[in-house]
Design brief:
Layout lengths: L5 H14 L4 H16 L4 H11 L6 H14 L2 H13 L6 H13 L5 H18 L4 H13 L8 H10 L3 H20 L30 H28 L4 H19 L5 H34 L2 H10 L5 H16 L4 H18 L4 H15 L7 H10 L3 H24 L2 H10 L1
Helix pairs in contact: 1-2, 2-13, 3-13, 4-7, 4-12, 4-13, 5-6, 5-11, 6-7, 6-8, 6-10, 7-8, 7-18, 8-18, 8-19, 9-16, 9-17, 10-17, 10-19, 10-20, 11-12, 13-16, 14-16, 15-16, 15-17, 16-17, 17-19
């Protein structure tokens, strides 16, 4: 290695390992252990750092929100909500395109995870949009984009992690993200008039899950009322979760447990769709997803420790602050770095690597950490559907059996509007600060 600091060597080794297709968690751990060796620290310290990194109460929200989202999908709660919005909005111009956007935003208040949202509601929305005349490519792009907003719309796993790293109120982050999240959803609707409305008859068997609307021969009012009653307890999920948080009944971490218990009660006692086999499968899927996330969190604690010890924060922060006297130029550079990183890495990894460097810059420039957190989350949401490593694209490709390149093409209009939305939220901090100030 050339004569550079251990921290910089660690970053180089990390990207080399990524290039060699080493899993992200192990790339973090191996590069950090290498840097610790260069600095002269033994491996006995690694265990203590890992234990300290994951022994944080707030991180309990991650596995429980993932489990709640899995249960909502497997117990049929998601399908009932989609049917309600089909009846409510289906006759408007854009039909299922509008329904898909609204359901994605609504599901964001349940799941908190982009890939999990694509898997849970993607088949239903894509099937409905295809039947309504949209191309499968465009429908998949819409789902990838809307599901990505799950890490912006509260409760968001990404915001929980940001709050832990930045030591910022998670409740304030949740409140601040509401208006920007809805605004990005509104921008998605602007792409509908430009969609290719060419029906694709070749529908993958995995999409044949959405049966015809029940009671379609009844008047609109009757159909709407019936579908509302059928989906009522599912529609109440965001009200229970967010209402409990904002009223002070429970913390965001406790809300994740409440959401899980609520899903079990609704599925077991009301809809009666809960079975031991289904519960077991949901637990297995949620455990696998949670293990991936927590493994990254664990090894990222080693990475972050090296960043701090080798003063990588001070070195890189000085470089950023020296780029320009204009804070908007610095903000643009940070946003560009996050956007590019999102093309190659998952959101959680990016936060653990970049935030220790970017947060001191934000504090030095006097930026509101809550507003900055919302901007970071929008950036990372865009990364979820940006090739070549947009995780949502891979999930959608698996659902639709379409090539990844075609899914990415369908997401391009939403990528453009999302970047415009990011710029607007950055220019007008009041969008994210309004509700926070109003509720204080």
């Amino acid at each position: 290695m050339p004569d550079i600091g251990a921290g910089t060597q660690m970053v180089v080794v990390f990207f080399v390992l990524l290039f060699l297709r080493v899993p992200v968690a192990f790339a973090l751990g191996l590069s950090a252990i290498y840097a610790m060796w260069v600095l002269g620290f033994g491996l006995d310290l690694a265990g203590d750092l890992i234990a300290t990194g994951i022994a944080k109460f707030s991180l309990l929200a991650i596995p429980f929100f993932i489990l709640a989202g899995e249960l909502m999908g497997s117990l049929g709660i998601a399908e009932r909500m989609i049917r309600f919005f089909r009846v409510l909005i289906g006759n408007l111009p854009g039909g299922m395109g509008v329904v898909g956007t609204v359901v994605c935003l609504f599901w964001g208040a349940v799941s908190g995870s982009g890939p999990a949202s694509v898997a849970a509601i993607g088949p239903l929305i894509i099937k409905g949009m295809t039947d309504d005349g949209f191309s499968r490519t465009y429908a998949a792009g819409l789902v990838c984009t809307g599901a990505a907003l799950s890490i912006v719309i509260p409760p968001s796993i990404g915001l929980v992690i940001y709050g832990v790293i930045a030591e910022t109120s998670i409740s304030d982050l949740f409140i601040a993200a509401i208006i920007p999240g809805l605004f990005l959803g509104a921008l998605m609707l602007l792409t509908l008039p430009f969609a290719k409305t060419v029906s694709d008859p070749s529908i993958s068997p995995s999409l044949e899950r959405l049966s015809p609307q029940p009671h379609s021969d009844l008047p609109y009012g009757h159909r709407l009322w019936r579908s509302f009653l059928d989906s009522f307890w599912g529609l109440m999920t965001p009200v229970v979760i967010l209402g409990g948080i904002y009223s002070g009944a429970f913390t965001p971490t406790e809300a994740a447990i409440v959401a899980t218990v609520y899903a079990l009660l609704v599925g077991g006692l009301i809809y009666r769709t809960l079975s031991l086999r289904g519960l077991y499968q949901s637990l297995v899927d949620a455990s696998a997803s949670s293990a991936v996330v927590m493994l990254v969190v664990a090894y990222a604690s080693l990475f972050g420790w090296v960043v701090t010890v080798d003063d990588l924060i001070g070195q890189y922060s000085s470089v950023l602050l020296g780029l320009s006297d204009n804070q908007w130029v610095i903000l643009a550079v940070i946003m560009l770095v996050l956007l590019i990183a999102g093309m190659f890495m998952d959101a959680i990894t990016i936060m653990f690597i970049s935030l220790p460097i970017f947060l001191p810059v934000a504090r030095e420039l006097g930026w509101d950490p809550v507003w900055f957190g919302v901007l970071v989350m929008i950036n990372l949401a865009i990364g979820l559907f940006t090739p070549p490593v947009g995780i949502n694209l891979y999930v959608a490709a698996n659902i639709t059996r379409l090539p990844l390149e075609r899914i990415a093409q369908g997401a391009i209009p939403f990528l453009i509007t999302s970047i415009i939305g990011l710029a607007i939220v950055a220019m007008f901090p009041e969008m994210s600060q309004f509700l926070v100030n109003a509720l204080r």
